[in-house]
UniProtKB/TrEMBL annotation:
Name of the protein described by the UniProt record: Oxidoreductase
Residues of the Gfo/Idh/MocA-like oxidoreductase C-terminal domain: 6-193
InterPro entries in the record: Gfo/Idh/MocA-like_OxRdtase_C, Gfo/Idh/MocA_oxidoreduct
Entry superkingdom: Eukaryota
Keyword set, alphabetical order: Oxidoreductase
GO molecular function: oxidoreductase activity
Organism: Colletotrichum spaethianum
Annotated SUPFAM superfamilies: Glyceraldehyde-3-phosphate dehydrogenase-like, C-terminal domain (SSF55347)
Protein backbone atom coordinates (compact mmCIF):
# COMPACT_ATOMS: atom_id res chain seq x y z
CA UNK A 1 0.00 0.00 0.00
CA UNK A 2 1.28 3.47 -0.90
CA UNK A 3 1.51 5.57 2.25
CA UNK A 4 0.72 9.27 2.28
CA UNK A 5 3.55 11.76 2.69
CA UNK A 6 2.96 15.55 2.78
CA UNK A 7 2.79 16.91 -0.74
CA UNK A 8 1.37 13.72 -2.27
CA UNK A 9 -2.02 13.43 -3.89
CA UNK A 10 -4.57 15.28 -5.94
CA UNK A 11 -5.04 18.13 -3.43
CA UNK A 12 -1.39 19.17 -3.77
CA UNK A 13 -1.52 18.51 -7.53
CA UNK A 14 -4.43 19.77 -9.60
CA UNK A 15 -6.34 20.78 -6.48
CA UNK A 16 -4.03 23.68 -5.66
CA UNK A 17 -5.42 25.60 -8.64
CA UNK A 18 -9.08 25.42 -7.61
CA UNK A 19 -8.20 26.00 -3.95
CA UNK A 20 -6.19 29.07 -4.96
CA UNK A 21 -9.19 30.36 -6.93
CA UNK A 22 -11.33 30.04 -3.79
CA UNK A 23 -8.73 31.96 -1.75
CA UNK A 24 -8.57 34.73 -4.39
CA UNK A 25 -12.37 35.03 -4.59
CA UNK A 26 -13.34 34.61 -0.94
CA UNK A 27 -10.23 34.90 1.24
CA UNK A 28 -9.30 32.81 4.26
CA UNK A 29 -12.09 30.61 5.59
CA UNK A 30 -13.21 30.38 9.22
CA UNK A 31 -13.13 26.58 9.08
CA UNK A 32 -12.22 23.71 6.76
CA UNK A 33 -13.72 20.24 6.34
CA UNK A 34 -11.92 17.71 4.15
CA UNK A 35 -12.75 14.37 2.56
CA UNK A 36 -10.02 12.45 0.71
CA UNK A 37 -10.71 9.31 -1.31
CA UNK A 38 -8.94 6.81 -3.55
CA UNK A 39 -11.36 5.82 -6.31
CA UNK A 40 -9.04 4.01 -8.72
CA UNK A 41 -9.54 0.64 -7.04
CA UNK A 42 -6.02 0.40 -5.58
CA UNK A 43 -4.76 0.25 -2.00
CA UNK A 44 -3.31 3.69 -1.32
CA UNK A 45 -3.42 6.44 1.28
CA UNK A 46 -2.68 8.94 -1.50
CA UNK A 47 -5.96 10.43 -2.70
CA UNK A 48 -7.02 10.74 -6.31
CA UNK A 49 -10.12 12.74 -5.41
CA UNK A 50 -11.10 15.14 -2.66
CA UNK A 51 -13.85 17.43 -1.42
CA UNK A 52 -12.96 20.44 0.72
CA UNK A 53 -15.70 22.56 2.29
CA UNK A 54 -14.81 26.11 3.35
CA UNK A 55 -17.00 28.11 5.76
CA UNK A 56 -16.61 31.82 6.43
CA UNK A 57 -17.23 34.48 9.11
CA UNK A 58 -19.56 37.44 8.71
CA UNK A 59 -20.27 39.24 6.49
CA UNK A 60 -19.89 35.97 4.53
CA UNK A 61 -21.33 33.77 7.30
CA UNK A 62 -23.82 32.18 4.92
CA UNK A 63 -21.15 31.41 2.30
CA UNK A 64 -20.25 27.76 1.82
CA UNK A 65 -17.55 27.02 -0.77
CA UNK A 66 -17.02 23.45 -1.97
CA UNK A 67 -13.83 22.61 -3.86
CA UNK A 68 -13.78 19.18 -5.53
CA UNK A 69 -11.32 17.40 -7.76
CA UNK A 70 -11.60 13.87 -9.11
CA UNK A 71 -9.89 12.02 -11.92
CA UNK A 72 -12.46 9.23 -12.15
CA UNK A 73 -15.59 10.25 -13.99
CA UNK A 74 -17.32 9.09 -17.18
CA UNK A 75 -18.31 12.66 -18.13
CA UNK A 76 -17.03 13.78 -21.55
CA UNK A 77 -17.10 17.44 -20.48
CA UNK A 78 -15.72 17.78 -16.96
CA UNK A 79 -17.55 20.12 -14.60
CA UNK A 80 -15.29 23.10 -13.88
CA UNK A 81 -17.31 25.60 -11.85
CA UNK A 82 -20.76 25.62 -10.28
CA UNK A 83 -21.60 28.81 -8.40
CA UNK A 84 -24.98 29.17 -6.69
CA UNK A 85 -26.17 32.40 -5.15
CA UNK A 86 -29.42 33.96 -4.00
CA UNK A 87 -29.69 36.09 -7.16
CA UNK A 88 -28.30 33.72 -9.76
CA UNK A 89 -26.14 30.73 -10.61
CA UNK A 90 -23.28 29.93 -12.98
CA UNK A 91 -22.41 26.50 -14.37
CA UNK A 92 -19.17 26.05 -16.30
CA UNK A 93 -17.57 23.01 -17.91
CA UNK A 94 -13.86 22.64 -18.48
CA UNK A 95 -12.23 23.75 -21.71
CA UNK A 96 -10.75 20.96 -23.74
CA UNK A 97 -7.69 21.97 -25.71
CA UNK A 98 -5.87 19.37 -27.77
CA UNK A 99 -2.48 20.21 -29.18
CA UNK A 100 -2.80 23.99 -28.99
CA UNK A 101 0.09 26.14 -27.82
CA UNK A 102 -0.15 29.23 -25.56
CA UNK A 103 1.29 31.59 -28.17
CA UNK A 104 -1.15 30.55 -30.91
CA UNK A 105 -3.80 33.11 -31.84
CA UNK A 106 -7.09 32.19 -30.19
CA UNK A 107 -5.49 30.02 -27.49
CA UNK A 108 -7.91 29.82 -24.56
CA UNK A 109 -10.93 30.91 -26.60
CA UNK A 110 -13.69 28.38 -26.15
CA UNK A 111 -16.23 27.19 -28.66
CA UNK A 112 -19.84 28.17 -27.97
CA UNK A 113 -20.81 24.65 -26.82
CA UNK A 114 -18.39 25.00 -23.88
CA UNK A 115 -19.83 28.30 -22.63
CA UNK A 116 -21.20 28.27 -19.10
CA UNK A 117 -24.93 28.61 -18.39
CA UNK A 118 -25.85 31.81 -16.55
CA UNK A 119 -29.21 31.87 -14.74
CA UNK A 120 -30.38 35.04 -12.94
CA UNK A 121 -33.58 36.57 -11.62
CA UNK A 122 -32.77 39.90 -13.27
CA UNK A 123 -31.35 40.24 -16.75
CA UNK A 124 -27.55 40.44 -16.67
CA UNK A 125 -26.76 40.37 -20.40
CA UNK A 126 -29.46 40.87 -23.01
CA UNK A 127 -27.19 39.56 -25.76
CA UNK A 128 -26.74 36.13 -24.21
CA UNK A 129 -29.78 35.63 -21.95
CA UNK A 130 -33.47 35.20 -22.68
CA UNK A 131 -36.42 35.18 -20.29
CA UNK A 132 -37.62 31.63 -19.63
CA UNK A 133 -41.38 31.64 -19.00
CA UNK A 134 -41.33 28.23 -17.29
CA UNK A 135 -38.82 29.20 -14.60
CA UNK A 136 -39.39 32.99 -14.62
CA UNK A 137 -35.62 33.47 -14.85
CA UNK A 138 -33.13 34.82 -17.37
CA UNK A 139 -31.08 31.99 -18.86
CA UNK A 140 -28.38 31.78 -21.49
CA UNK A 141 -24.97 30.55 -22.53
CA UNK A 142 -22.31 33.01 -21.40
CA UNK A 143 -18.73 33.05 -22.73
CA UNK A 144 -15.71 32.83 -20.45
CA UNK A 145 -13.13 35.57 -20.43
CA UNK A 146 -10.02 34.33 -22.20
CA UNK A 147 -7.26 33.87 -19.66
CA UNK A 148 -3.55 34.23 -20.27
CA UNK A 149 -1.57 32.06 -17.85
CA UNK A 150 1.70 32.91 -19.62
CA UNK A 151 1.43 36.32 -17.92
CA UNK A 152 2.32 34.81 -14.54
CA UNK A 153 5.75 33.85 -15.86
CA UNK A 154 6.24 37.28 -17.41
CA UNK A 155 5.29 38.86 -14.09
CA UNK A 156 7.73 36.59 -12.24
CA UNK A 157 10.58 37.56 -14.59
CA UNK A 158 9.74 41.26 -14.25
CA UNK A 159 9.62 40.95 -10.44
CA UNK A 160 12.99 39.20 -10.35
CA UNK A 161 14.40 42.02 -12.48
CA UNK A 162 12.93 44.65 -10.14
CA UNK A 163 10.46 46.04 -12.69
CA UNK A 164 7.26 45.25 -10.78
CA UNK A 165 5.80 43.47 -7.75
CA UNK A 166 4.61 39.88 -7.83
CA UNK A 167 0.94 39.59 -8.72
CA UNK A 168 0.58 36.31 -6.82
CA UNK A 169 1.85 36.94 -3.32
CA UNK A 170 3.56 34.26 -1.23
CA UNK A 171 0.84 34.70 1.42
CA UNK A 172 -1.80 33.60 -1.10
CA UNK A 173 0.11 30.39 -1.87
CA UNK A 174 0.70 29.85 1.86
CA UNK A 175 -3.05 30.12 2.53
CA UNK A 176 -3.88 27.57 -0.18
CA UNK A 177 -1.34 25.12 1.27
CA UNK A 178 -2.73 25.73 4.77
CA UNK A 179 -6.23 24.88 3.54
CA UNK A 180 -4.92 21.54 2.24
CA UNK A 181 -3.17 20.84 5.56
CA UNK A 182 -6.32 21.68 7.55
CA UNK A 183 -8.44 19.57 5.18
CA UNK A 184 -6.09 16.63 5.75
CA UNK A 185 -6.34 17.15 9.53
CA UNK A 186 -10.13 17.27 9.21
CA UNK A 187 -10.15 14.06 7.19
CA UNK A 188 -7.93 12.27 9.71
CA UNK A 189 -9.99 13.39 12.74
CA UNK A 190 -13.43 13.26 11.13
CA UNK A 191 -14.19 16.81 12.29
CA UNK A 192 -14.34 20.33 10.93
CA UNK A 193 -11.14 22.24 11.76
CA UNK A 194 -10.93 25.96 12.55
CA UNK A 195 -8.43 28.16 10.71
CA UNK A 196 -5.35 28.44 12.89
Amino acid sequence: MKEYTPGDGMAFGLGTHSIDQAVVLFGRPKSVTGFFRTQRGIESEVEDSFTIVLQYDSPQKDLLVTVKTSITTPMAQQLKHLVRGTKGSWLKEEQIAEGHRPLEPGFGKESAELYGTLTTYKEFDGNSQHFDEATKKYVGKYPSIVGRWLGIYENLADAINGKTELEVKAQQSRDAIRIIELARESHNTGATVSWK
